[in-house]
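Open question from group meeting: does this chain pack into something compact, or does most of it stay loose? Before anyone orders reagents, we agreed to write out a predicted structure and look at it together. Recording both the input and the output here so the notebook holds the full record.
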Amino acid sequence: MAVYSYEIGATSSMTNVESLGTPVYPPRGVFVEHTREYDKADGQVGGDGYPAAIWQWDMLTQAQVTQLRTFCSGKSASVYIKTRNNTGAFATYTAVMIWPSDLMKRRQFGGRFLDVAIEFRRLVAVV
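Structure tokens returned:
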């Protein structure tokens, strides 16, 4: 049984990452409210753009990386995800999944990948 509600899918029919054919441990999810933040003339901070999410793992096996690649075989792909938002609640979004450019630099002996972060841009809430 899944402990967390992190889900992913190529369509709105998503699967919990812990229940995939090759199960993946739940990530540490980071939610970013704005794509870009900037300083305003009055000293406040403004934000523009869509929200984003980053899923981070300390370690993934080659089998787990291969499983996640089924959702994004190229550099990026449109997906559906369920992730924590800024209130800590889980919500469903359409997103653009961005595969890490430096993944092969993170490969270690034994087919493990250390410190992997997958970015999900252009989050749009699914009602």
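Observations to bring back to the group:
The mean pLDDT is 94.
The beta strands are 7-9, 15-16, 28-32, 36-39, 45-48, 52-61, 76-84, 90-98, 107-108, 112-125.
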